[in-house]
């Protein structure tokens, strides 16, 4: 970003000078003496066979300041896990793979289920949650970053900039969110953030008036980015959704637990591209269709906890207000794209808005029809209260998977 403007109610770190990654890493190596750092990589096994992850691993192998890399591996059988051990073996840093589908971690998950505190559905949220537990168990890192494994434009400066605000010993930030522009192949991407989240937040502000929570969310330049960092202690107390509402859920939890003075965002990449989700108009269980539904539910649940009363009539008003704001934003994005020589298909943009508007109503129906819904995975504080030695046994299980026979 070329500006230095501080908007919203959280601190914004810009990329003003394009400072070389080597200079950032000199600082981070020094910081690591006082505040050891780790990285969480939630991954599907299929990503080991994709175009991005091998390059990411090559870049991470050059990073000099990490004490630990934790890889959460989903959808892998025994042979695939053994291949993953070999695949990641070129990392020089201490690293461990959580074989989430292996018998040892499945047995621990069964214990959690018996206590009613197991994640309810598979997915990124469950993967990240188990990785967070392992970070707490290993105690190797005091500052932790997380990013996806499908970033085809990855270089290690992304990680350096992402973790810097929470790693600096003189900074007081507990949580940092990464942002970037979503441009690839001459097109403006990021439809769910641009066309659903931002106009929905602004519609809610227009309807319910000034709420610090909505002002807070509207301060993030890219609230759906999969890249964030935090002090390790943050992992103890947050509850995260297991569905597509993960990113909004994490932002809501850190807002609940910390002053906005302790939260920030940082520009981490000039160019960012990753695997694109299909719209999936005909499949409410997949793609941007499912994502928009889960995000709307996450926002409604949070508003309810703030004492906002929402009924069936409310959702008609929300939909109508959202629709008008979203259509106006399409005009803005189209003009911005033209000036920058980018492509934007206004027809498909308006189709996406129509789908998101329908899901705003459907999410409201689901929200009202399921008052006992328990969308959040319990915090690790609660898990340790229920099963005091589970983290230690998880650590031992992961060690056996990574070093022993499986």
UniProtKB/TrEMBL annotation:
InterPro entries given in the database record: Nucleotide-diphossugar_trans
A single GO molecular function term of this UniProt record: transferase activity
Keyword annotations: Transferase
Name of protein: Glycosyl transferase
Lineage of origin: Bacteria, Pseudomonadati, Pseudomonadota, Gammaproteobacteria, Oceanospirillales
């Amino acid at each position: 970003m070329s500006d230095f403007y501080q908007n919203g109610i959280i601190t914004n770190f810009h990329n003003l000078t394009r400072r070389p990654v080597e200079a950032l890493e000199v600082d981070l190596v020094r910081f690591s003496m006082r505040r050891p750092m780790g990285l969480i990589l939630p991954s599907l096994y299929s990503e080991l066979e994709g175009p991005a992850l091998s390059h990411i691993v090559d870049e991470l192998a050059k990073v000099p300041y990490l004490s630990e890399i934790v890889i959460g591996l989903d959808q892998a059988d025994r042979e695939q896990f053994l291949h993953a051990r070999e695949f990641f073996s070129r990392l020089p840093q201490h690293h461990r793979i959580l074989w989430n589908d292996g018998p040892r971690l499945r047995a621990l998950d069964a214990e959690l289920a018996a206590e009613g505190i197991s994640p309810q559905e598979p997915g990124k949220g469950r993967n990240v949650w188990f990785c967070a537990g392992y970070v707490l168990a290993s105690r190797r890192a005091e500052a932790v970053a997380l990013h996806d494994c499908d970033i085809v434009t990855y270089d290690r400066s992304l990680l350096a900039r992402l973790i810097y605000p929470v790693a600096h010993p003189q900074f007081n930030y507990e949580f940092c969110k990464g942002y970037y522009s979503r441009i690839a192949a001459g097109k403006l991407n990021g439809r769910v953030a641009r066309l659903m989240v931002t106009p929905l937040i602004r519609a809610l502000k227009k309807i319910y008036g000034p709420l610090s929570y909505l002002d807070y969310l509207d301060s993030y330049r890219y609230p759906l980015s999969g890249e964030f960092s935090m002090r390790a202690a943050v992992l103890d107390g947050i509850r995260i959704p297991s569905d597509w509402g993960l990113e909004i859920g994490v932002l809501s939890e850190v807002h609940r637990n910390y002053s906005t003075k302790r939260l920030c965002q940082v520009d981490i990449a000039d160019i960012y591209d990753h695997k694109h989700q299909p719209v999936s108009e005909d499949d409410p269980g997949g793609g941007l269709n499912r994502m928009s539904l889960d995000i709307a539910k996450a926002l409604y649940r949070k508003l309810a906890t703030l004492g906002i009363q929402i009924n069936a009539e409310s959702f008609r008003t929300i939909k109508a207000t959202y629709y008008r704001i979203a259509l106006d934003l399409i005009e803005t994005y189209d003009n911005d794209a033209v000036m920058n020589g980018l492509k934007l298909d206004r027809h498909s943009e308006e189709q996406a808005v129509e789908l998101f508007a329908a899901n705003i109503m459907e999410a409201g129906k689901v929200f009202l029809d399921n008052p006992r819904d328990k969308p959040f995975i319990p915090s690790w504080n609660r898990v340790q209260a229920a099963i005091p030695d589970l983290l230690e046994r998880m650590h031992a299980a992961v060690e056996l998977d990574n070093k022993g026979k499986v």
